[in-house]
């Protein structure tokens, strides 16, 4: 089923039983309401969506925006809007505090604009204590829902308009995956595609399995159909999204591995680049490495979170691999894909981490030689096993280790990034450079940025660019003549 035209939906009777048809039914009702309200006010109704957190949240927000635009709202960046929705993150404790602070500001805006509506969704809303706090202390919020029922947004808005009271609709888990919802992409030429939802890993520091639920893989035919529709609409690069993409397919009626899915996606005409995140080292198979080595479309970049270089700490983290197994995996990858760009995530100051444990992490960094790394100071997350662990590491010790780690990573990264200087590379042109409008900014297959002279007609194209100079973490380049018609 494709996206439905709201004008053709009969809203005179009861809502349909089929979930996707039911949601379009509510969208059609809301479209009439929005048109009436806009006429009364003499202007379009506006909506502001604020996204916190990861790429999964960003993709969810595209669906949220798609629904709002479908029912007639005009999207704006300013929170002085008729409808404000926060898509929240709860990976770190201070993310919650940030949302509470913003809610205080929204209360003042709502006092000035009584018909304003406020909704909260996302991971933070999956926590019982958070929902109770909002219910008690932030009564001006209109709708609260979580990560599993974003597809119900139109129905929830309709229920709120009918009831005149706060609507709370939180699911602890979900089995159903609702396809064919409206979606509004941030970029016309690249898009995120969910291949699965949830996580079964239960790393001891991570709240995600508790707020995103168990792993659920999408039907491969639905994934391929979505990608084919995207490429027909001008998309040349996709990012496959999942908390652990390597676990894809395990719960399907007919099991399919992530590697097999990639092989099917590669066959899609018009698609030029395939990215994915995030793979888990414990599940990264020889089959996947082989597919990557032979692929003409999978980007030359792999994000492989290590989190710690200490086997002792990795066991406490419940990561299910040792330092030695991780390094062995990296060796396999580099042997099969010699020019691969590796990036990672590292947590500094996990409970019980000693200087010896930290030096093991430094050793992994020196041996693997990452192009870049996302380094995090351990954040105690209420509700996770790690938060209850003894031997929480002192702030001064953590800061010292963090600074040393960052210095090492930056030193290695500076050496590696310049390795392609002087060569001609394919660049996906993404935007006009924000600092110098005479320059375009694009991205190499290995995810490194390139700035070069050009015009905005190049945006969304893959152009050949000579990398003339490395500037540390990006390149300056020169457009190769005639390359503007690569696609």
Provide an overview of this structure.
By secondary structure, this protein is α/β, with parallel strands linked by helices. It has 4 domains: 6-169, Rossmann fold (3-Layer(aba) Sandwich); 186-299, Transcription Regulator spoIIAA (2-Layer Sandwich), CATH 3.30.750.210; 328-417, 2-Layer Sandwich (Transcription Regulator spoIIAA), CATH 3.30.750.200; 423-479, OB fold (Dihydrolipoamide Acetyltransferase, E2P). The chain is 36% helix and 20% strand. It contains 13 helices and 19 strands. Strand 3 (83-88), helix 3 (93-112) and strand 4 (117-122) form a beta-alpha-beta unit. The radius of gyration is 24 Å and the shape is globular. 39% of the residues are buried. The mean pLDDT is 91.
- Using only C-alpha atoms, the radius of gyration works out to 24 Å
> Architecture of the largest domain in CATH?
3-Layer(aba) Sandwich
CATH fold field value of the largest domain: Rossmann fold
Count of the separate structural domains = 4
Judging from the principal axes of the Cα atoms, what is the shape? globular
- Poorly predicted sequence stretches spanning 5 or more consecutive residues: none
Quantity of strands, as a count: 19
């Amino acid at each position: 089923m494709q996206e439905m035209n709201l004008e053709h939906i009969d809203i005179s009777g009861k809502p349909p039983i089929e979930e996707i048809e039911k949601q379009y039914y509510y969208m059609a009702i809301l479209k009439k309401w929005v048109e009436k309200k806009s006429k009364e006010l003499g202007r379009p109704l506006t909506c502001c969506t604020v996204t916190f957190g990861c790429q999964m949240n960003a993709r969810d927000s595209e669906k949220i925006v798609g629904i709002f635009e479908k029912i007639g709202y005009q999207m704006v960046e300013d929170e002085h809007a008729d409808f404000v929705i926060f898509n929240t993150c709860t990976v770190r404790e201070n993310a919650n505090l940030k949302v509470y602070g913003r809610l205080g500001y929204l209360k003042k805006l709502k006092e000035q604009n009584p018909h304003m509506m406020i909704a909260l969704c996302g991971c933070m809303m999956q926590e019982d204590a958070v929902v109770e706090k909002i219910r008690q202390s932030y009564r001006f919020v209109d709708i609260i829902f979580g990560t599993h029922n974003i597809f119900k947004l139109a129905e929830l808005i309709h229920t709120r308009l009918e009831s005149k009271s706060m609507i709370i609709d939180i699911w602890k888990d979900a089995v159903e995956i609702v396809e064919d919802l409206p979606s509004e992409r941030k970029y016309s030429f690249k898009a995120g595609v969910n291949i699965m939802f949830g996580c079964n890993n239960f790393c001891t520091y991570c709240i995600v399995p508790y707020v995103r639920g168990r792993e659920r893989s999408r039907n491969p035919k639905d994934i391929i159909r979505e990608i084919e529709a995207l490429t027909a609409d001008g998309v040349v690069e996709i990012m496959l999204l999942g908390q652990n993409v390597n676990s894809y397919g395990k719960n399907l009626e007919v099991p399919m591995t992530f590697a097999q899915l990639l092989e099917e996606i590669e066959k899609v005409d018009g698609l030029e680049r395939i990215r994915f995140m995030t793979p888990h080292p414990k599940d990264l198979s020889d089959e996947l490495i082989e597919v990557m080595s032979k692929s003409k479309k999978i980007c030359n970049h792999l994000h492989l979170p290590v989190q710690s270089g200490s086997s002792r700490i990795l066991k406490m983290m419940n990561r299910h691999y040792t330092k030695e197994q991780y390094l062995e995996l990296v060796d396999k990858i580099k042997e099969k894909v010699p020019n691969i760009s590796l990036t990672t995530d590292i947590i500094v100051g996990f409970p019980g981490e000693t200087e010896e444990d930290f030096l093991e992490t430094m050793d992994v960094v020196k041996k693997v030689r990452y192009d870049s790394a996302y380094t995090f100071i351990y954040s105690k997350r209420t509700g996770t096993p790690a938060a209850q662990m003894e031997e929480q590491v002192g702030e001064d010790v953590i800061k010292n280790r963090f600074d040393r780690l960052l210095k090492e990573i930056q030193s290695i990264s500076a050496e590696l990034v310049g390795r392609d200087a002087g060569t001609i590379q394919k660049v996906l042109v993404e935007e006009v450079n924000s600092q110098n409008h005479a320059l375009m900014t694009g991205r190499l297959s290995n995810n490194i940025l390139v700035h070069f002279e050009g015009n905005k007609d190049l945006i969304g194209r893959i152009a050949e660019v000579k990398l003339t100079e490395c500037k540390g973490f990006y390149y300056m380049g020169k457009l190769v003549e005639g390359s503007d018609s690569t696609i």
